Every structure is written in structure tokens, then in C-alpha cells.
Amino acid sequence: MPFPIKVCVACSEEFELRPDKPGFANRCPECSVSDESETETKLGRGADERKAESEVNEARRRAIRDLLYRKDS
């Protein structure tokens, strides 16, 4: 049984859609690989960035908690 032939939305090249192909079903393997490497670089954050983000989230949670549970006086 042959694999279906698809057209890549990024580069308009035809490719066979195989079950073990990485990435999206509407992109060829070459375009999918470049997307995976971009997402990996976005996920790599340093300790300073993670700490700053956690502090911002804590302040956000505190503000929401204060708004929800403050007594009307």
C-alpha cells in the first residue's frame, strides 16, 4: 500500500506522508525539522529567567487572591 502524496505548506514540495515522519502532517520532513529546532531554542531558559517568571506569577496569584477574598468595608 503506497503512502499518500502531500504538498508541503511551507515550501510547496511534494512528499510521502509516512507514519514515522516527524513534525506536522502538512509539512515535509525538512521543514518540520527546522521547526523542531526553533522550538527547542525557545524552551531553553536560564535560571534568572525562570526565577523572574516565578516571581511574576507569584505576584499575579497574590493580586488575584486579594481581589477575590478582600472584605468589602
The largest pleated sheet is described as: 2 strands, antiparallel
Q: What fraction of the residues are assigned to beta strands by DSSP?
A: 5-15%
The number of helical elements comes to 2
User: Low-confidence spans: pLDDT under 50, at least 5 residues?
Assistant: none
> Could you give the count of β-strands?
2
- Radius of gyration of CA atoms, rounded to a whole number: 23 Å
Structural domain count: 1
Helix content: 40-55%
Give the topology string: H per helix, E per strand.
EEHH
Using the alpha-carbon principal axes, give the shape: elongated
- Cα distance, first to last residue? 74 Å
Structural class: mainly alpha
Strand order of the largest sheet: 1-2
Overall pLDDT confidence: 82
Region (Disordered): 34-57
Biased composition (Basic and acidic residues): 39-57
Give an overview in words.
The protein has one domain. Helices cover 52% and strands 8% of the residues. It has helices at 29-43, 47-69; strands at 5-7, 14-16. Strands 1-2 form a two-stranded antiparallel sheet.
List the main descriptive attributes of the protein structure presented here.
single chain, mainly alpha, elongated, two-stranded antiparallel sheet, 2 helices, 73 residues, 2 strands
Short overview:
The chain has 73 residues and is mostly helical. Helix content is 52%, strand content 8%.
List the helices and strands and how they pair.
Elements: E1 5-7, E2 14-16, H1 29-43, H2 47-69
Antiparallel strand pairs: 1-2
